[in-house]
Amino acid sequence: MPPKAATKTRRSRRSKKPGVTISDAIRLLTEQYGPFENEPRLDPAHELVFTILSQHTSDRNSERAFRNLMDTFSTLEAVAAADVADIEDAISGGGLARIKAPRIKEVLGMILDLNDGSLDLHFLAEMPMDEARAWLRQLPGIGPKSAGIILSFSLGMPAMAVDTHIYRVSQRLGIIGPKVNADKAHEVLEAAMPPEDVYPFHAAFITHGRQVCKAQRPRCGDCVVNYGCPARDEEAIRQATAVVESAAPDAPTHDTADTDQPDGQAPGRRRRRKDAPTPVPHTQVVKELQP
Questions:
Q1: What are the start-end ranges of the H helices in 138-233?
Q2: What tens digit of pLDDT does each residue of 154-180 get?
């Protein structure tokens, strides 16, 4: 029987799994789905309202609700002055209108009270990010994700916005621990990368979560970072590799699908899909609102 120390060493080596760095994950996922253009979004007040409408509903529904809201009232000042019932009617196609209508009116009214009667929130860009985030989070229904969306996409600040896809992918890759909750994940992930990586991280991880690293049936065989994923499905990877090899028998093969490549490249990675959409849910709405 080998000494206990030797047994422990062998077990630790056997259980050790390769990892993927955040920078490598961003690079590989951007090559797969990108490039991701940080396109112009709505001004901060409109972005805030759109964010409320997007909570717990699909992009299509939130776009429809937002477009109808602006078609009905023309300006957010008119929305703030409107009856809740009229706001609810305007956003009824977006889901949860009875909850979101009074929230929108309350939020807009609170902004007017706090900001000398103005809905212009561009002053947040002049504040330290923690203070700007805290200012937004005092508004009803605005949590860390919504605040991050407004600061990042509307004002160009390096604020992290963690949705369910980013949270899931980050946990599966071991970037955040299993006990880190969604709110804490914003702080952990934002501190884990330089400011210039925050937007590409968001864009790459949310797209990967939507297309490959799905909640119920992740497509591990199609994942470009599966070589460094502690949660990867080895059987799915094996089957995907077998399909690729049978389709191209003359192509060079690798001994294993989860070899830890020093440059962060996964063996047998797929080419980037040219038709992969960027994770900007309301680009068309933005264009329609441009002067």
A1: 144-149, 164-172, 182-191, 198-211
A2: 999 999 999 999 999 999 999 999 999
| Calpha distance 103→52 (Å, rounded) | 8
Q: What is the DSSP letter of 57?
A: S
Asked if residue 55 and residue 111 are part of one domain, the reply reads yes
CB distance 175 to 22 below 8 Å: yes
* Domain final residue pick, 121, 155, 189: 155
Cβ-count burial of 248 within 10 angstroms (0-12 exposed, 13-18 middle, 19+ buried)?
exposed
Structural domain harbouring 173: 164-211
Query: Taking a C-beta distance cutoff of 8 angstroms, is the pair 259, 267 a contact?
Result: yes
- Degrees to nearest 5, angle at CA 194 with 192 and 199: 95
Output the pTM of the full model.
Answer: 0.76
Q: Hey, what are 210's tokens?
A: 């939507």
